[in-house]
Amino acid sequence: MVFDDALDAQAPTAVTTNPISDGASADDLEAASSFKGTWQHIGASKQQAREALLGPIEDDADLSSLAASLLTDEEAAIIGKPAHILAADIAARRLTSYQVTLAFCKAATIAQDATNCLTEICFREGLAQARSLDTYQAEHDGKTIGPLHGVPVSVKDHIDVKGMDGPSGFVGWCGNCVADTNALAVSCLVEAGAVIYCKTANPQSLLSIETNNNVYGRTTNPHNRTLSPGGSSGGEGALIAMRGSVLGVGTDIAGSIRIPALSSGIYGLRPTIGRLPHSGLRGPHSGMDTILGVVGPLATCLADLNLFCSAILERQPWRREPQVLTLPWKTELTSPSPDRKLRIGIILDDGLCAVHPPISRAMNKATRTLKAAGHTLLPWDPVLAKESVEVLFTACLQDRGEEYHEHMRLSGEPAVPLLQWLLTERVPSKTLSTPREVWDLNVRRDTVKTAALAQWEQLNLDVLLCPGAPTLAPRHDQSRHWNYTSMWNVTDWPAVTFPIGKYSGVEAPEEEAETRYPPHPPRNPIEEHVFKEWSPEWYRNAPVGLQLVGQRMQEEELLGCLKLVEAALSA
Amino acid sequence: MVFDDALDAQAPTAVTTNPISDGASADDLEAASSFKGTWQHIGASKQQAREALLGPIEDDADLSSLAASLLTDEEAAIIGKPAHILAADIAARRLTSYQVTLAFCKAATIAQDATNCLTEICFREGLAQARSLDTYQAEHDGKTIGPLHGVPVSVKDHIDVKGMDGPSGFVGWCGNCVADTNALAVSCLVEAGAVIYCKTANPQSLLSIETNNNVYGRTTNPHNRTLSPGGSSGGEGALIAMRGSVLGVGTDIAGSIRIPALSSGIYGLRPTIGRLPHSGLRGPHSGMDTILGVVGPLATCLADLNLFCSAILERQPWRREPQVLTLPWKTELTSPSPDRKLRIGIILDDGLCAVHPPISRAMNKATRTLKAAGHTLLPWDPVLAKESVEVLFTACLQDRGEEYHEHMRLSGEPAVPLLQWLLTERVPSKTLSTPREVWDLNVRRDTVKTAALAQWEQLNLDVLLCPGAPTLAPRHDQSRHWNYTSMWNVTDWPAVTFPIGKYSGVEAPEEEAETRYPPHPPRNPIEEHVFKEWSPEWYRNAPVGLQLVGQRMQEEELLGCLKLVEAALSA
Question: Where is each Amidase domain found (chains A, B) (predicted)?
Fold first, then answer.
């Protein structure tokens, strides 16, 4: 694909003749779904199809500013802005949606080349949509169709986008997942004016906090390609960190929005189950209700998390999806009085796996700073951590991964290393084989939730601050301990991760003194593994971030508290 | 038990020495749980224990006004008032809680004698609690502790009340269910000032829309003892219809609040899952999340449904039970402008089982009247009715009733006839034996929900009016078709049943002409059974009522719409 104005003239026709567009003929769709051959061959075909829609690009750039350095000054300025500013610029006609979308298509191409973060490409359709939004605005005295008018948004692979494939990391699904309609979250964003221009990588099985599959291969971290961008929304994390996207749609059942956000130095929100629409997703274990995944945003700033949720909930998705809570978004709650003092629960260690030194120092520093700013800090006892982990894995693997095996058998593909680890080390000892075993698991989950709520109320918390993982962005295939994020999936509390800096890769003597590591003998084999994963130089340039956790159905309050926390930390 | 002022003096001590009171000693509790012997013997002991706490009473009274006729004029006036008026009278010190509670204890005794609706009795504790509330008020310048200050409330047997047994209809549970704490709904009511004075009958297994068990026997309908009061909150229905209670706590997983309310000529609300607290209940299939039961009120008027919900939600139960939606009650929405015109969906027939003539005439008349009052009526197509029934029974019987059998084996008791019917005719063909079969069932449920929501939105409804059952209060052991209520458990929409009159037991010629019955050849064996259950004289004096259904999480709007519907119907 060449980015020039030729697209402009041909856009409307181009869209209807593209095999993955809305107007695709039956023949086109058949051609698109004709991925045949060995699993290796299918993956290669899929990658080839993607390459054909991208263009050639240099491979030796400095990743931290690669996109900006390769674009024009004007384009670099565009991709440097957050979504709410871009929306304001487009609404005020300082920028066109076409300009903005084109800049992000270019940056996404660069990001793909650097990190292998994209899957399905619909630049042509996105640019045509952008042009059509510009035309609408021109013909309606500058009026926009919604709060995201003209802003490009990227979408995780397993979330349906009309007319596009979404194999979700399984080779055997390639070509068989062309969506008839948008997932509801995508529909709401499009109705709010968003431009969809690409889909992003997720790992095989989706149940991983890294991003690797046999269709597209491994996604790497733009800050340091020897590290993972996290997962399962790792394509989103890498793409947004490269500014190849400004706002992404991710999903999270155990940390899959928050781990990529932390690993890539951006923001990620895991909302309460049912707060945002979740219909129109592909992936294993549909109907597994013990722990439900959620849709949520990844973004470059706090304000854009608010914009994403508010734009979707303005569309009243509860009128289209029965699981969505009838609960309008209250933006005013995201801006509390700057003088408000919070009661903040603190977790330094979850009782199962100590965190690496840069993370414990970040927690220590945040704790000191918040205290100095007048907030009250209270230790949180993660008393049911082990049970929480077991409930999560038993829920997600209650069929001992049989469904994953079934999807892999479609193509004969092997499990990627981390799925293999899950299927070996994390499956319950036996398949749940009676309804009552499933019911008992739900009761165990509710027991964890009840105990957590009792502690929250006893401490009378506003919010809870904790690490999001025991390591910075993990080395490839090494992530093992999910509990810092997954425990909030079990309690169903909204949680947001936010960046606070980058790690140098060097421990100064005073830092070494502050955070002796390992702090104790390993308490279990996973902690032992995490201990071995500590070597400062491995994590050079890795982003450092933390996690803030709120109460069920109170996403706005949580974002409001994060505003206060960030103000204190940056003061 | 003798109702005299002697109780007054001894109340505080009496409470602490009663074996089922809060202050029971370990020995007392052991004695209370020492039900041994055959299942027949255990049931007889339980009935004997109850009789010992009641007094002798005449058995030949006219049931429709029995309680009032046997009480003093003052007491009869008290039991004739709804809860919100009693609360106002107590708050204004026109009545004491003791007077009110005593009147209801007496009426409850009469109701028990007439219908066999009570299980556990705690009149002494209730009267002591009433006295203590009166004392509080006297010592605090008339101040009350909450909106239910001094109002007696009855509680369905399987809902925990501290210090009391709750065998929930299983012989083998007798004496083993003495609760350490109140169920959360009960706690909230008590904190709002309610006086707990008795528990009420539910059927063996709880999964029945009649009320019969081997512990206490069959509960009958106060309007006509050859009929059932419905179930599973049938004890509540019978007790409240007799004015032996003014407000009751029931539960509903398939119609268990609404069927008793309809059968007894009172009001019953099934709220959205999670709207009211549900923790602290005993009963089978804990953790079965596919279709969850809910707690809700049975009452003598619409205003009391509002009072019940508002009193509980004022206590912010979401701070104590993680499943409760963080959603304060908005009483103002229960009083819409009297001029508001509604869009009302109408179901005359659910496609599976035609309703008996008095019910179809009630629907016809309501439809005509509402139309004349300016409301818009729109036919609802119950398109997924069969699937909805199958989802419900597969969910509740996914273990093919194995858990019921287990509880029955504890004592060797047999299944009562309707449980036997369920276990024979309604169990799925095989036990769900893999997690994925359970997931598939959840997906089927969600498909029903999504289709129903789409139709609601397409019709742009405010509310939906329909029968609550195909028959009036059923003849004992004859109820078979639950779908008119259970379909709203599958969609998880709030639904309220309300009385509109009583049936004469005679079909006038013009009535017979209006409602030809049966209207068509039977469409299935259950409809055939229901056809055979029609003989006008069987239903003499049976209450007639209908059901109004709203949208998820919008109980207040539903009650507001019912106010408009009732205004039109009574005009």
Answer: 100-559
Residue A448: which region, alpha, beta or left (left: phi > 0; alpha: psi -120 to 50)?
alpha
The mean pLDDT of chain A is 91
- How many residues belong to chain A? 571
C-alpha A495/C-alpha A488 separation (Å) is 7
Instruction: State whether B435 and A288 contact (CB < 8 Å).
Output: yes
The per-residue pLDDT for B134 is: 98
Who has greater pLDDT, A10 or B261? B261
Helix ranges restricted to H, B184-281:
184-191, 234-241, 258-264
Rounded CA separation A248/A259 (Å) = 14
Query: A468 with A485: CB under 8 angstroms?
Result: yes
Residue A32 clears pLDDT 70, i.e. is over it: no
Residue numbers belonging to the annotated binding site of B for substrate: 206, 232, 253-256
Pick the CATH number of A6-55+81-332 from 3.10.20.90, 3.90.1300.10, 3.40.1360.10, 2.30.22.10: 3.90.1300.10
Catalytic residue among A232, A263, A264, A486: A232
Structure tokens at B73: 């004029």
Q: What is the pLDDT of residue A445?
A: 98
pLDDT in tens, A511-544: 998 889 999 999 999 999 999 999 999 999 999 9
The torsion angle over the Cα atoms of residues A482, A486, A487 and A489, rounded to 10 degrees, is 180
Of B207, B196, B197, B198, residue with least CA distance to B170: B207
**Looking at CA atoms only, how far is residue B120 from chain A in angstroms?**
27
Same CATH fold assignment for domains A6-55+81-332 and A334-570: yes
pLDDT digits (tens, 9 = 90+) for A399-414: 999 999 999 999 999 9
Query: For chain B, which ranges sit under pLDDT 50?
Result: 1-2, 5-34, 56-62
Any known ligand binding at A256?
yes
- B434 burial level (CB within 10 Å; 0-12, 13-18, 19+): middle
Q: Which CATH class for the B346-570 domain?
A: alpha beta
Task: Please state, in angstroms and rounded to a whole number, the distance separating the CA atoms of residues A262 and A268.
Answer: 8
Per residue in B10-38, pLDDT tens?
333 333 333 333 333 444 434 444 456 78
* CA distance, residue A36 to nearest chain B CA (Å): 28
- Is the CB of A438 less than 8 angstroms away from the CB of B436? no
Residue A502, pLDDT > 80, answer: yes
CA distance B159 to B185: 9
- pLDDT band for A82, please (50, 70, 90 cuts): very high
Q: Which residues contact B191 (CB under 8 A, 6 or more apart)?
A: B145, B146, B315
Give me the amino acid identity at B64.
Answer: S
Buried b (16+ CB within 10 A) or exposed e, A123-159: bbbbbbbbbbbbebbeeeeeebbbbbbbbbbbbbbbb
Which residues of chain A are within 8 Å of residue B440 when distances are taken between CB atoms? 287
At the topology level, CATH places domain A334-570 in Amidase signature (AS) enzymes (3.90.1300)
Measure the CA angle with vertex B467, ends B343 and B485; round to 5°. Answer: 100
CA distances to A46, A123, A233, A317, A516 from A154, rounded to whole Å, are 19, 11, 11, 20, 41
The reply to whether A532 belongs to the active site is no
CB-nearest to A435 from B320, B326, B399 is B399
Interface confidence, given as ipTM, is 0.90
Q: What are the sequence ranges of the domains in chain B? A: 6-28+35-56+73-325, 346-570
Q: Is B500 helix (H, G, I), strand (E, B) or coil?
A: strand
A169/A205 Cα distance (integer angstroms): 7
Enter the pTM of the model: 0.91
Mutate one of A253, A321, A438, A453 to test the B interface: name it (highest B CB count within 10 A). Answer: A438
